[in-house]
Amino acid sequence: MSGGHSSYTPSTGIEKWIDARLPLPRLVYDSFVAYPVPRNLNYAYAFGGILAIMLVSQILTGVVLAMHYAADTGLAFNSVEKIMRDVNSGWLLRYLHSNGASMFFLAVYVHIFRGLYYGSYKAPRELLWILGVIILLLMMATAFMGYVLPWGQMSFWGATVITGFFTAFPIIGDPIQQLLLGGFAVDNPTLNRFFSLHYLLPFMIAGVVVLHVWALHVAGQTNPTGIEVKSKTDTVAFTPYATVKDAFGLVLFLILFAYFVFYLPNFMGHPDNYIQADSLKTPAHIVPEWYFLPFYAMLRAITFNIGPINSKLGGVLTMFGSIAILFIVPWLDTSKVRSAVYRPWYKLFFWLFIANAIMLGWLGSRPAEGLYTLFSQFGTAYYFGFFIVIMPLLGLIETPRRLPNSITEAVLAKTKSGGQLAGVAAAPETRA
Amino acid sequence: MKKILLGLAAAGLGTMLAFGTANAAEEAHNAAEPTHFPIKEPAEVNWSFAGPFGHYDKQQLQRGLKIYKEVCSACHSMHLVAFRSLEELGYTEAQVKAFAAEYEVQDGPNAEGEMFTRKALPSDYFPSPFPNAQAAAAANNGAAPPDFSLIAKARAVERGFPRFVFDIATQYQEGGPDYIHALLTGFGETPPEGMQIPEGTHYNPYFISAKSLAMAPPLQDGQVTYDDGSPQTLSQYSQDISAFLMWAAEPHLEERKKTGFRVMVFLVLFAGLVYVAKRRIWADVEH
């Protein structure tokens, strides 16, 4: 797909026959075998592949779980327990699915941070980045609705709080909320539509993933230097080089995944969700799943009115804005240099951004009172400041370090200082 | 990548440490009118089912079942647990059948359209002591006793930073049984001076949501007779019932941990093989 030139040569009769009618093998060969990738990709680049596997894993476990699940407020909680107790390997499926959601978000956050660090969103990859943000939004909607399905206390009250956000909008707020709920409160119609959408959205994600990968294969992958591929020596073939490296990263990730599934399956969940939903008993603290906590902290950080915008609407706008701002990141960054490796100041602010995101996550799990609110406000200010102030300004005033002329030069400089033989690397593709 | 992970870890730890101290300062509270519960943290009990090779002690579960049957089941239902699953406690099919037959369950309607009661079968679930939640509440001072099927997973005292991070390494998942054990052994302490205990409730500094609860101390030394020679003490009772409730909430725990070990061994070996393959393939390419 990249560059429009194909190196696929069908050798057998049947391959030629298929290639003349539907060149699917050619597409696969060009995209996942011969496709050139920069030779200097590190393991941070393995997360795209990991995410694809996680999506498949979630869909497979989810489809089987749906065979045993009953989307009815009177049955849902017990049907999940039936899966845990009586369905063959049901406990495994359900723990894979619930922990899989957490792992999916862990991977997507690393993937996004990698993009921010190496400037992967910059031209000509703006659409690639935007498609990624759309996937993130779809993932969030899917995860939120999935968390409601077991019909525990946090399911119910989380749904009540989150759908309540929409009432902050004047005029259209209440109708939107009623449309989401299928009524005036979280109840059976809500559960039914959430189940329906929870089953639908993953396939929409899969669709956008296809576009995301397509856009990636048109522009080509970035790499830690941020320099575009210039010659054949800059790249290696996707298979076997990237496949085996991605596979190793994937297996390591699966070890982490399995560790949680088999030894800490309820670590990331909330105990209250093992209590059946009760519309008359509000839990002491309603907290979302960990992957929403930074956004939840920003929502609650707005405790003051801004002109005509009251604090509730302000909080909701801040929360939606924290995702929406990602869409324009390619145009907020004014730097001519892509990778943080050559941008000392950006690197510093980037790590502060990570620390800030983790801090916001922790604050999101705390009650909204006293010092916590104050820190959340600082955290929110830095989150937006990073995108709105630091990104545009830094690109104009920062003096980047000297860039190597090519990926090959960067790689050879590195290995030379490492005291290794650099000569063999001149033309990696010619070597067996 | 290594740098990124290290940076992440350092950034996270640094910020959270700073806030951990802020947190501690905030939680300094008035002894007479505490605002954060439980007042005291539960002690960590050494459970047989903890850790990567954890397994249930069947003798202990049988003792726990006896306590549930003789004491707890007077008020607490356990409607998700079927008699048939008691075979996992080491009972034979015939023993389970006999155990179930001690209970009466409602069935029907019969051919005449009448509901009737019959002896429970292994396929039946533990019958509930009250017909509905309202009846349970009415008989218990307005607070319906919670169902016990999942209680060991539905209760856990928040671990707080930095302990929840270490819990990943130590595989601490026993917050539920630790809490139940602490609650059962935590009655009988005198409340701090000046604390008002509402009438009809019982002070317990380990209770998760208030300073006192409606339940009276349910277990005393010597209350339940053990036939396996175990000490008939409150401490032993509390451990046994907590272990039993953990089993009731997570009956496949042993199977899960055993499967987990095989999966981990496979994945680690597989990772090694893939790594060797990766080294071979990349051997000629500087990167």
From TrEMBL, chain B:
Heme c binds at residues 72, 75-76, 215. The keyword Heme applies. Its cofactor is heme c. Its main location: membrane. Keywords: Heme, Iron, Membrane, Metal-binding, Signal, Transmembrane, Transmembrane helix. GO terms for molecular function: electron transfer activity; heme binding; metal ion binding. Gene3D superfamilies: Cytochrome c-like domain, Cytochrome c1, transmembrane anchor, C-terminal. It comes from Phyllobacterium trifolii. The chain crosses the membrane at residues 259-277. It holds the Pfam family Cytochrom_C1. This is Cytochrome c1. It is found in: Membrane. Residues 1-24 form the signal peptide. Binds 1 heme c group covalently per subunit. InterPro entries: Cyt_c-like_dom_sf, Cyt_c1. The keyword Ubl conjugation does not apply. GO terms for cellular component: membrane.
